[in-house]
Amino acid sequence: MAAALSSGLTMSRLGEELYISKPKISELLSGKLYPRWELLHDVAVVLGVSVWPLYRLWRQAALETQNKSRAWIEKSSAARGTMMATRATPPMELSAFREITEGGYRLYAGVFLTGCRDAALEETYDQLWLSWDQALASHDTRRYAFTVLRTAVMARTPHIDGRPEFSEAAFDTIALQTASDVGEAAEQVAESMALFKAMSRLPDNQLDVMVLRVLHGMTHEDVSHFLGQPLPRVRSDERHAIRFLEDTLSPPPPAEELEDTVSPPPPDEEPPPPAEEGDQP
Questions:
Q1: How many other CB atoms sit within 10 Å of the CB of residue 66?
Q2: Which long-range contacts (CB under 8 A, 24 or more apart) does 87-91 make?
Q3: Structure pTM?
Q4: For residues 2 and 175, what is the distance between their CA atoms, to the nearest angstrom?
């Protein structure tokens, strides 16, 4: 737990506060065993961590990554009044930030996720709730927050060879929605899937720019604001991405084809015959 490591409390002191042994604290901080909520709740109280977002994150992780049953979750949290924590509200600045960003975050997450998009969004804002002071103190709060969102989204996105697989988004593009017939739609799907496969090979920053520019039609200024990146950086990322996609989707023809298309040079002309004596001036 980052809060424990940054609190200044030693493991011995934390153990004394919680009435548990130092080895147990070490085991908790190592992440080797998924803690019961009873223990995590007491640690949060000692460290002054907001209980409600931590509980939501703990519960979601138990279901998604730890394969814990709902019965285990309820039993683990029954001894602590988790319902009391539901009365807590996030900081006012975070609530305002969510109102501004949630629509765009939902669009971005929807490119990569279908059924678990909302879970990724809730995790994002819960993580921001727990680290809002760090977000405000960062160089750019928008960049900090988008990094949290991207982490939550990519953790749920299928990957092939280390790159995100999001071809399902081919069925939700504007071009596909406006296709006039079945043949055109099928062709558009094929083109979109080829584009998305190529896009998945882009560096992270370039991929994010192209997702927002190509799939959602954002302006450069909107993308800059959304990602918390300087406008020149956004334009540069787009130029490099477009160059890569053009080379990937429309590679130059093989050398042998170039030879077939190039006209052969004209044959060497014979030298003119020598002038006769009568032709001399």
A1: 12
A2: 88/50, 88/51, 88/52, 90/53, 90/125, 90/129, 90/132, 91/129, 91/132
A3: 0.75
A4: 45
Give the torsion sign (CA, 74, 76, 81, 84).
Answer: negative
| CA separation, residue 114 to residues 25, 117, 147, 152, 274 (Å) | 38, 6, 20, 14, 84
E-strand ranges in 110-151 read none
CA–CA distance, 12 with 26 (Å, rounded to integer)? 10
Supply φ then ψ for residue 271, to 5 degrees: -65, 145
Closest CA to 109 of 54, 148, 63, 162: 148
Q: Taking the CB of residue 206, how many other CB atoms lie within 10 A of it?
A: 21
CA distance 39 to 60: 17
User: How distant is the alpha carbon of residue 181 from its chain centre?
Assistant: 33
Structure tokens at 46: 């000692």
**CA quadruple 105, 107, 112, 116: dihedral sign:** positive
Question: Which helix (H) or strand (E) covers residue 164, if one does?
Answer: strand 163-164
* pLDDT band with cut points at 50, 70 and 90 for residue 263: low
- Please give the mean pLDDT across all residues of the chain: 80
Quote the crossing angle between the two packed helices 11-18 and 37-47, to the nearest 10°: 110
Query: What would the two tokens of residue 281 be?
Result: 């001036």
> Half-sphere exposure of 117 toward its Cβ, with a 13 Å CA cutoff?
16
Q: Which two tokens stand for residue 49?
A: 């961590």
Arithmetic mean of pLDDT, 249-259: 63
Burial annotation 18-33 (CB, 10 A radius, 16+ → b, else e): bebeeeebeebbeeee
Strand partners for 257: none
